[in-house]
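ok so i was messing around last nite and threw this chain in just to see what happens. nothing serious, just curious
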Amino acid sequence: MIEAIYKAHEVNQTIIALIDQMVAEIGKAKHDYTSCAIPEELFAAIKEVCSPEDMEKAVFTDDKQTREENIRNITAACEEKFADNEEWLAVLGEAIYQYQKKTVRKMILKDHKRPDGREITQIRPLSAEVDLIPRVHGSAMFTRGQTQICNVVTLAPLSEAQKIDGLDAFEKTKRYMHHYNFPSYSVGETKPSRGPGRREIGHGALAEKALMAVLPSAEEFPYAIRSVSETFESNGSTSMASTCSSCMSLMAAGVPLKAMVAGISCGLVTGETDDDYVLLTDIQGLEDFFGDMDFKVTGTTKGITAIQMDIKIHGLTRPIVEGAIARCREARLFIMDTCMKPAISEPRKTVGEYAPKIIQMTIDPDRIGDVVGKGGKTINAIIDRCDVKIDITDEGFVSICGIDQEKMDKAKEMVELIVTDFEAGQIFKGTVVSIKEFGAFIEFAPGKEGMVHISKIAKERIDRVEDVLTLGDVVTVVCLGKDKMGRISFSMKDVAQN
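result:
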């Protein structure tokens, strides 16, 4: 992965050279920038209210709410002190924020002291559990410090895959969907819950990408899969917690993942020189806000499945990139070994009790039209009678989805009958659907009928078909082949002899 990143970096230099050439030839002068820097006099006055030592005490706690309350108290004291200076009051919030930032960065860079007291390589307390919601197809909870994600997995037949109308002409559907929700209560706020913003979409896409590499193919596992991560509490790196939670939830749902996936975030605080920096494992919200990098990596024990990074500095040296990737590998292996595997070590062999079951079979593509019937009449009759869902691909792969195994088996039997090339001697069960003077028509599968001539109904001679059969009777018949008109011919009286 490191070699791939730096190969791309090498190629990018040619693109940058072109951009620089364009700027030199047709570029416009940059706009002037008016500095909005906080007056140094304000910082000095704030330090009289709250000394650097007091600010360290205020931010040095592993409880987010306590820290926020400490900062509110400092802000209130400053507002009281500067009540007559409207110019300072207008920028006081930003000044307090920058004071916090300088304090936290100094603690980390010079003292290797993190706000919650952890070592720079230490992960917050972990916990995990599965099956906490009994009625759903799969569920899991993953907690890392004050970040907690509950994930729920729902399985459905492939026909319920998301349809995509995008720019890629080859991508028409999306079989695996991961959705991420970030309600206001997860950060101690109250506001209306509206549609997802770019943050929710981005976090959901990252956790979705993290699992794509280990998902089974549609042939191996013919389900559409929806995974939803609900953020119960947030204090940094909820997307990585969503990756861990969704992986466990999928395994609990019986999705045969090829490997377990975990994710973690690595942070960075830099000094004045390239070699003056500190990498932080498992950054919390404060370290993300005040640090220089958020480097997220997901993967298995063997490799990386997704990377996402944002930085607030001009660039990263190669030792920083290599160190971050190595640190994330150590952390994700630790998370899998000590937290996730004790909760669920491998995917369950079968889907859950309440999940839909699927039977797969293959038919001759030329017979798909027989199964579907005119205007979908035949396939809809099977669906209605057996209370199932049926999907058929152009290649002839048939998936029968339902809850009741007996009904699913019946639907499979009907499909098999429809695509069978009938031969004399085959035994069928069917229903009397029509009675004529010359015989009765027997439906042995939706849209598939054959006729029993009156002379083939009973061993003894009968005058009227109605003397033996009535509409709706279920009878056993033997196939005699096709008559002169090409219709399937049956016999009831010859069943015993066959």
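not much to say yet. The longest strand covers residues 147-157.
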